[in-house]
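Field reference: sequence -> structure
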Amino acid sequence: MSWSGFKKNLNRATTSVMSKTGNMDRTADREFEEEERRGKILEAKSEALYKEANGYIQSLRNVTGTQVRIATTIEQYFDEADPMGAYGVKYKEAVTKLEEEVREDVDAGFRQAVLEPIGRYYAYFPEIGEAVRRRNKKLLDYDTARSKVRKLVERPSEDHTKLPRAEHEAEVTREMYEAMNAQLTAELPKVIDSRIAYLDPSFEAAVKSQLSFAQDARNAMEPLRQYFPAEPHGHELEQAADGILGEMSDLQICRLAM
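Structure field:
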């Protein structure tokens, strides 16, 4: 950084502190400040939406991948002669196919129609933030120049050229600040209002993707229903489990540990 750049940043920092502590007049624009506040809220929500959408597709991969691993373990529980062994094979085939569909179709479609558009939308906010920071720097320059003019008016310098130069500098910084401020004040609402039209297709695609996955999962699991008896009541399952555990506790091997 050049010496002049360092001095300018130092002056801006000093002006910012003095403005916040009330020791210097601060130019305020309520309209811009409101739009900036709304923009920051939208940026935070867009970031959260992108992270959650990415987390959703990652969760689908985790769920279907875990189903395959569970099926692989269950398959190893039964002997070939046990009917449940054949059912375990069919379950593994069903969840493996579902996992492949998620990886090849659902994942790719969700990324293209949902995740990537949201990511592109969110990527604009750092540029907007940089424009706001440049506007704020111009504001500090303007307030610094105004303060210099006020001091020269209150305490005239022996050098009569200082005040006209300071007034000229204040006018130049005012024009630069107001031009940038007007542009941002006009365009920030457009950015904020664009969210609905832009994100509507992604929202629709997200809902359809979830519906498609739910239907695919049901279609994969439904044929397995025929291999299992009608669902028993909760207390019947508990009684059956207690009975089996009771038989295990009666075995000599369990008494050897006592």
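Note: The CA atoms of residues 35 and 188 lie 6 Å apart.
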